[in-house]
Write a structure and sequence with these properties.
Keywords: Membrane, Transmembrane, Transmembrane helix. It comes from Streptomyces caledonius. This is DUF6332 family protein. The chain has one domain. Helix content is about 80%, strand content about 0%. It starts with 5 loop residues before the first helix and ends in an 8-residue tail after the last helix.
Length: about 80
């Protein structure tokens, strides 16, 4: 396996940044979809706490899956085979 060029290192850095930003956005949407009804419908505080926990858990899973999906796709591109 050869040494990585500066362009390769830059591409990896950009891809990691994209993965983090898009994962954060997707996680925020997932959390908002679960927790959104609490202020909209004035639900009880207990229900709000439960939905906040469920939303946070879902957001964490979505965040991890999005990062894995983006980076796995980047690693499988033909120009990233190390040649």
């Amino acid at each position: 396996m050869g040494r990585r060029t500066q362009a390769d290192r830059d591409a990896i850095t950009i891809e990691i940044g994209y993965a983090l930003v898009s994962a954060g956005f997707a996680a925020a949407l997932a959390f908002g979809a679960v927790y959104g009804p609490v202020p909209a419908f004035s639900l009880s505080p207990a229900t709000g706490r439960v939905l906040a926990l469920v939303g946070a858990g879902l957001a964490a899973v979505v965040f991890a899956l999005r990062i894995a999906h983006v980076l796995r796709g980047f690693a499988r591109r033909p120009e990233n085979d190390g040649d």
